[in-house]
Amino acid sequence: MLIYWIILCWVLLVGGLGRLYPRTALNDNKLYEKRCNIFFAILTFSIIIFFVGLRSGVLDTSAYINGFRNTTTGISALNQDYEGKDIGFYYLNVIFKTFISSDFHAFLFMIALVCGIATMLPLYKYSPMFELSSFLFVSTANFTWMLNGIRQFIPASILFCCIPLIVNKNRYLFICIVILLSTIHFSAIIMIPVYFLVQRKFTKNIIPLILFFGLFSLFSGKLIPMLEPLLENTQYAGYTDYVFEYSGSSIFRVLVASVPILIAVIKWEEIKNMDSKILNICLNMSVINIGIMIVSSAVGGILIGRLSIYFELYNLILYPMLFIQFTNKKERRLIYYLCIVFYTLYFYYQIVVVWKLPYVSDILNLYIYN
Questions:
Q1: 259 and 313 in contact (C-beta within 8 Å)?
Q2: What pTM does this model have?
Q3: Which of 174, 154, 156 is nearest to 164 (CA)?
Q4: Cα–Cα distance measured from residue 73 to residue 77, given in angstroms and rounded to the nearest whole number
Q5: Less Cβ around it within 10 Å: N or C end of the chain?
Q6: pLDDT digit string, tens, across residues 264-289
Q7: Are 174 and 166 in contact (CB under 8 A)?
Q8: Non-local CB neighbours of 220 within 8 Å, separated by 6+ positions
Q9: Are the C-beta atoms of residues 213 and 294 closer than 8 Å to each other?
Q10: Is 189 exposed, middle or buried (0-12, 13-18, 19+ CB in 10 A)?
């Protein structure tokens, strides 16, 4: 577990140092804010990319290593009839192994680099507290998607980096990118309807939507099997037969995900007249995230719970944007430190107590299992 504590401390301390050497940037309200400069942004995320990229046996990493080793090289491999799922990821394996390197370490590091930069750039561009956003990326265990489920995190992180396309309503380019990324993991296709949903102005009238998700959870035993005809010709065919055999999101995780929306409701008077497209998009994404987790708490986490990664990343920007609404410095400082303390405890609970997450790297000669 030592490696993950090093990562957590690094992003908070190095990101915090970045506040001493800020850059000045315009936010979407045309007001100047102090933001993290690019040097400290890269330095903060470098620790994540380094350890994630050099791993060789954490969670489902072995499956990706075996898949890469078994991939056929050469242009002819691209012309073969591929019967597996997510052909885009297969092509990525073939192209990398043929033209760049046949070493799986290089392949894993490349993916970590792409996902790390794609996650960092929106935080660098939009977060008024980069060090807090980076800390939350680690402490909420979202960074573990770079260790487990990377095939889904590739499109999730790249689409997170496409926030400007949502803000500027560049729908056609966004949809084209979604379709392309859906070849890496089909679940990315959910972002097409979401693109239109999050354009609506956020209001406190979210209770009916959350109630809808709650009712769906209650009647999921009857509703989920009805989806089977829609999934019949996809990679998820047959999932509805065993989806209830797996535990979904815990109620504790649902409560944690609800915190930013609770803060938004409390500070509603301060944010309701703000003409901030970024804040509005992040709030709507956060509501969708809560809804998915509520549904996932009643059904299997594999089919539904994993969709949350497409929306949970937006909380990394949302938290700092909400915190700056606490105009009283003492109040803001108190909330800030409480966030650090409680999310560190959450990190300990999730990484150490629940998952007992190991770290293995043959390059670094590290084999940490407890």
A1: no
A2: 0.89
A3: 174
A4: 6
A5: C
A6: 888 787 777 777 889 999 999 998 88
A7: yes
A8: 295, 298, 299
A9: yes
A10: middle
